[in-house]
Write a structure and sequence with these properties.
By secondary structure, the protein is α/β, with parallel strands linked by helices. The chain contains eleven helices and ten strands. Bound molecules: 5'-O-[(R)-(carboxyoxy)(hydroxy)phosphoryl]adenosine and zinc ion.
Length: 346
């Protein structure tokens, strides 16, 4: 039975996990850095890199001890090699290289986005290729056609902010704290989603791309007007964001008639309102809908280990060279054309 050690350190979660070829998460540990970053209202890259450096080695030892095994029992070490905050990615990748060299175990350099993209298959063995994926996290908001491991076609991206970023900025504006997504979701439960008139950027556009910067600015104006309750702004923001996602997906799905499965992954997929809306879109299109459990949606090492299991099974698999570099940017579909109006983040 294949067994892969996964390491994740691309943002503010330090994580290690052991996953086997039967989709069993044999062991996993995760340490969030929320407390360190909360005073700054966002992730501070230098603090993140230091925290990863302090925590990762004991964490890896911990998962091996939890499983009662040594590195020699692992078929490969899979580490996030990008995209992400470069200091953190380097900590994880350098650790993986050292362990791979010391134990003579193959190294697999995983694209963090591929970890998210394949996570639904870790959660559910019946999810086969192809599927349409909404990947919505703090740094990315894309719709992709997933035809296989490593075979991604980007159908849409954001021209400015990612969806998770919009949740985080809204939380900051409303004083809801950090991390923002779950805080906005909780506050929204007490509010009226139709109380505050907010824009739905891009809705009606013939191309399926996203934009959330204008929505965030409108949230700021609504808050500064002093006319609305915080809970009503949170609920109205969440509703506007969901309306945008649904409209953009409908445009994308018009191009993917041959695909019968819709999948959501990434941190924002933990949001119950988003999940419910997507389930409805899938039903309207006669598609099956799948979302990993919330714990597999936000950053974790099990999805990185699982991507390693999937890569190891490819006929063309070869281990990463030990001099491979960490990559701050690493698109899943390098052939995707730049989007008109997109800023540097696309
Ligand atoms: O995938 P992830 O853990 O890290 C990245 O790769 O970015 O995603 C984190 C993002 C953050 O922006 C966070 O606010 C958002 O996902 N998020 C949520 C929820 N949980 C996490 N957004 C909305 N509702 C949630 N429940
Ligand atoms: Zn992520």
């Amino acid at each position: 039975m294949t067994l892969v050690l996964g390491i994740e350190s691309s943002c503010d979660e330090t994580a290690a996990a052991l996953v086997d070829g039967d989709r069993r998460i044999v062991a996993q540990r995760i340490a969030s850095q929320d407390a360190e970053h909360a005073p700054y209202g966002g992730v501070v890259p230098e603090i993140a890199a230091r925290a990863h450096a302090e925590r990762l080695a004991p964490m890896i030892e911990g998962v091996l001890a939890d499983a009662g095994i040594t590195l020699a029992d692992c078929d490969a070490i899979a580490a996030t090699a990008g995209p992400g905050l470069i200091g953190g990615v380097m900590v994880g990748l350098v650790s993986a290289k050292a362990l791979a060299m010391a134990s003579d175990t193959p190294l697999i350099a995983i694209n963090h986005l591929e970890g998210h993209a394949l996570s639904p298959r870790l959660a559910d063995a019946s999810i086969g290729f192809p599927y349409v994926l909404l990947l919505a996290s703090g740094g990315h908001c894309q719709i992709l056609r997933v035809d296989g491991v490593g075979r991604y076609k980007r159908l849409a991206t954001t021209i400015d902010d990612a969806l998770g970023e919009a949740f985080d900025k809204t939380a900051k504006i409303l004083g809801l704290g950090f991390p923002g997504g779950p805080a906005v979701e909780r506050k929204a439960m007490e509010g009226d989603p139709s109380a505050v008139p907010l824009p739905r950027p891009m809705v009606g556009s013939g191309e399926p791309h996203f934009s959330f910067a204008g929505l965030k600015s409108a949230v700021l104006r609504a808050h500064e007007s002093g006319q609305f309750e915080i809970a009503d702004i949170a609920a109205s923001f969440q509703q506007a964001a969901v309306d945008c996602v649904i409209d953009r997906l409908r445009v994308a799905l018009a191009e993917t008639d041959d695909i019968d499965t819709l999948v959501v992954a990434g941190g924002v997929a933990a949001n119950a309102t988003v999940r419910a809306a997507l389930e409805q879109v899938a039903a309207d299109h006669g598609m099956r809908f799948a979302a990993p459990p919330p714990k597999l949606c936000t950053d974790n090492a099990a999805m990185i280990a699982w991507a390693g299991v999937e890569r190891l099974a490819l006929p063309e698999f070869s281990p990463a060279p030990l001099d491979i570099s960490a990559r701050p940017r690493w698109p899943l579909d390098p052939d995707a054309a730049p989007v008109r109006g997109a800023g540097v983040k696309a």
